[in-house]
Amino acid sequence: MENAPAAAESENLEKDEEMQKNLFFLTDQWRRQEVTHRIERIKTCTDFETGEKIAARLAALREMLKEEEGPEADISTESLRALQLFLQAAGSVRSPEITLTPEAEVYLRWKAGRDRLFAVHLVNGRMVRYAIFAPSPRHPRFVRRLSGIEAADTVLETAGNVFPDLEWLKE
Amino acid sequence: MQGEHLPLQDHTARYCPGSRIAENGKPAPAAFHLRKGEPYLSVEWLEYLGQPGRPDEIRAVIEILSKKLRLGASARIAVLGVGAVCAHVRKETGYSIRVLHEPEPDDPAHSGIHDTAADEMMIAELIAEAVEETHPVQ
Q1: Which of B14, B15, B16, B19 is the best mutation test for A, with the most CBs of A within 10 A?
Q2: How far apart are CA A74 and CA A65, in angstroms?
Q3: Would an 8 Å CB–CB cutoff place A145 in contact with chain B?
Q4: Contact between chains at B92 and A143 (C-beta distance less than 8 A)
Q5: Mapping DSSP to helix (H, G, I), strand (E, B) and coil, where does residue A4 land?
């Protein structure tokens, strides 16, 4: 009889552990579904061809991430949300180079020659980091280099302030 | 020796996972971003390995890395010249980065590229430009 409280406590602990395992499993399942869903949504955020290309690339990167960091690793859902916002605001752009950062956040990059670059690191739903390399309008061979923090849906406007035209992102 | 500057004429190798390799096979700038809490970019000091040539150095690096990491099929090893990468970043931005020896008990050639966090995106872009060669890991 004296052991009854201890046995009950041990049973409760087991139940708690079981519940935590189930919760972890469900959270993980939810996160995976969320990533799949967000990658699918990307297809509708820009023109058909670019959307398909970007979604296929993200799916391939997701596989590589899992191969290298384990099955529980996945692309940041917040970063995918920012990508969606960015693409909706950007309209029709040519397909960028896409990779992932060490935190599994999406990194977009458009480059033309050695002096023209627009790179966007989609950090979370609101914030992006960017780097811009652009030829100096006054000094030939001098490359202007800017970096900073912006909102996902306005970073292209910032790039527009630096580049006289953004056609090279679209061609 | 811990904290010693690597000679400018020497080379380092950085492991670049497949998710940080562009579709053209080149390491993307994201391969030179720090993980949260990482103090520097981990590299291996190639000349320290004492191998007769680059293929042997790369084989030795892969052997070291395979004990620490799960090496992906599409991952690559990027080779950077110490002096070349420091000079490129300095010339284009004015930032000074340092490549220091950071030996570990099971990895005496381990080293680090320091001071990239000051303007990480810009510096990582320039480090990626300075990559001299890449090698597959498998």
Answers
A1: B19
A2: 7
A3: yes
A4: yes
A5: helix
- In this structure, the dihedral spanned by the alpha carbons of residues B27, A68, A127 and A112, taken in order and rounded to 10 degrees, is 20
User: Cα separation of A62 and A102, whole Å?
Assistant: 13
Q: What is the pTM of this model?
A: 0.89
- ipTM of the predicted structure? 0.94
Residues 6+ apart with CB under 8 A from A136: A142, A143, A144
* Three-class DSSP category at B23: coil
Residue B110 pLDDT: 98
Query: The tokens of A29 are what?
Result: 């399942």
**pLDDT tens digits, B79-134:** 999 999 999 999 999 999 999 999 999 999 999 999 999 899 999 999 999 999 99
Using the beta-carbon criterion (under 8 Å), do A101 and B18 form an inter-chain contact? Answer: no
Query: Do residues B59 and B5 touch, judged by C-beta distance below 8 A?
Result: no
Q: State which residue of chain A sits closest to B16, comparing Cα positions.
A: A102
- Give the separation between CA B27 and CA B22, rounded to whole angstroms: 6
CB A119 within 8 A of CB A108: yes
Q: Which residues does B62 contact at the CB level (< 8 Å), separation at least 6?
A: B71, B77, B137
Tell me the shortest Cα–Cα distance from A66 to chain B, in angstroms. 9
Alpha-carbon torsion (A157, A159, A162, A167), positive or negative: negative
Q: How many residues does chain B have?
A: 138
Question: Where are the domains positioned within chain B?
Answer: 11-136
Which are the contacts of A12, defined by CB distance < 8 A and separation ≥ 6?
none
